[in-house]
Amino acid sequence: MSDLDLCYLPAAQALAAFRARRLSPLELLEAQIARAEAVEPRINALAYTFFDEARAAARRAEARYINTDGRPRRLEGLTLAVKEDTAVKGRPRTFGSLVFAANIADHTDPSVERLVRAGAFVHALTTCPEFAWPWTCTSRLHGVTRNPWNAAITSGASSGGAAAAVASGTTTLATGTDSAGSIRMPAAMCGIAGYKPPYGRNPTSPDFAMDMFCHIGPMTRTAADAALMQNVMSGLHARDHATMPQHMRIPPTLPDVKGMKIAWSMDLGIYAISQAVQANTRAAIARLQGAGAIVSEIATPWADAVYRTAGRWGDMIYADEFRDAADNQPDLVCDYTRFFADQTAGVTPRMFHEAMKAYGAAWAEFGPELARHDAFLCPTVGTTTIGADCRDWEYPVAVDGRQVSVQKVVLTFPFNVFSRCPALSVPSGIAPDGVPTGLQIVGNPFDDKAVFRVAKALEDGIYSKDGLRPRCL
Question: Which of 26, 140, 421, 442 places its Cα 20 to 30 Å from the Cα of 284?
Fold first, then answer.
């Protein structure tokens, strides 16, 4: 197996090779370090690297596999890249901003802590935009992160560095955070699996734990690898009041989709979807139908009210943070932070309350419809043409020549509003510009297994056709 093959080895296969002693954790790490040296000057996904410490951890993992009494742990010897807005004790936690350039985390996020205790080791922190806000992964601190499939295109955001690192072969596992689609949007852009678990499933740091729209989840090459991570991350944790006592285990073998009732919408009635995304979505639907699923297109009249009030939740929570940074340290913040500070200035408690009522009314419509099905599908992102250097907070993006707001092409936020619904993005194909497209799988509240069941059926077709590797690298 070549070093490049190692870089794209799914986690489950790497663990099996470790156990059989056909591969050592150090060999895998060294291949990924060499890969990073080759691609990072172009992609810029890794904000900070800790390769020497990672080598020591890989040697310890190797010893556990050699020593039959070592009892290798569930993720023993796998590399883990953590989005740099997520705490790893003793490591930078800058939130993508020069304002916090000197900040060092004083604790480790509970979900990351669980992954490390299971044997994974953090060899890098990944890039994110300032305060994890725009849909393009760019900041004054980290620069521009580019799509491994087409460097002119964004990797997505805000977990853009995590998605690009997985897609370019510089890590096996990665974590992302998601308040409006920040795991799923970049996962779709980079052709990987990205999972937003139900709120309360995975613990996170106390400063984020009470935000019911905010989630931490896995970003991996395959949905099976995401399930492997998810099984480690989930469950009750003393530092996160919202976590549920029930531990949801996603089994490695899932039933096929025969007989599953799956609803779908191409555009939720309001979003702009390119012809390429539409074609790949229809092909994915056909694969599910061919596998025996009962697939029905449904109307989504509730989506418009959610779209019109989409930003109010975050505006109320983060308005003061943006305003303080823009006013008190104007020489350090990005242009878009000043833009968002001005944009959120007029949001009032009444507007926030109206948004919450709109979200409740939307669920009153969608919830019963979803309950009649096992899952719901729609594209994750409506276009592949968002430029890496695009000032998406100011300028529109192109959808088949039509100029629309970037908010009109990212279909993820409604399923943060419906925060107890699991949502998983998996690849649906490749667009003519060489950039992947994604399909978002949404389950009923806390039904994690259903989305992974659908994902398996989709992946069985897409990976055999298009592969897992960006062809431009």
Answer: 421
For residue 236, tell me if it sits in a domain.
yes
The amino acid at 179: S
**pLDDT tens-digit readout, 58-84:** 999 999 999 866 689 999 999 999 999
Q: Are 262 and 288 in contact (CB under 8 A)?
A: yes
- Give the CA dihedral 203, 208, 213, 217, nearest 10 degrees: -40
Vertex 390 angle, CA 388 and 393, to 5°: 130
DSSP-assigned letters across all residues of 258-295: TT-EEEE-SSTTT----HHHHHHHHHHHHHHHHTT-EE
Q: Cα(423)–Cα(447) distance, rounded to whole angstroms?
A: 10
Please report which confidence band the pLDDT of residue 209 belongs to, taking 50, 70 and 90 as the band edges. Answer: confident
Classified as helix, coil or strand, 308 is: helix
User: Which residues touch 473 (CB under 8 Å, ≥6 apart)?
Assistant: 39, 42, 43, 148, 168, 169
In a domain, 472, yes or no: no
Answer whether the bond into residue 24 is a cis peptide, omega within 30°. no
Would you state the structure tokens that stand for residue 6, as one six-digit string?
Answer: 């190692």
Distance CA 18, CA 24 (A): 6
| Whether 169 contacts 8, CB under 8 Å | yes
Query: In the structure encoding, which two tokens stand for residue 450, read together?
Result: 């259903």
Q: What is the CATH number of the domain that holds 133?
A: 3.90.1300.10
Task: At 405, list the tokens.
Answer: 């707001």
Residue 121 structural domain: 3-466
Torsion of CA 370, 372, 374, 376, to 10 degrees: -30
How confident is the model over 16-47, as pLDDT tens digits? 999 999 999 999 999 999 999 999 999 999 99
Phi, psi at 325, each rounded to 5°: -65, -45
**What is the tens place of the pLDDT at every residue in 346-381?**
888 899 999 999 999 999 999 999 999 999 999 999
Which residues have C-beta within 8 Å of that of residue 242, sequence separation ≥ 6? 199, 200, 203, 209, 210, 212
Q: Is the pTM of this model over 0.85?
A: yes
Give a yes or no: residue 473 inside a domain.
Answer: no
Rounded Cα distance, 414 and 458, in Å: 22
Among 398, 458, 466, which residue's Cα sits nearest to residue 264?
458
Total structural domains within the chain: 1
pLDDT for 464: 54
Amino acid at 224: A
Q: What residue type is 275 in one-letter code?
A: Q
> Is 471 a member of any domain?
no
Report the C-alpha gap between 11 and 74 in whole angstroms.
11
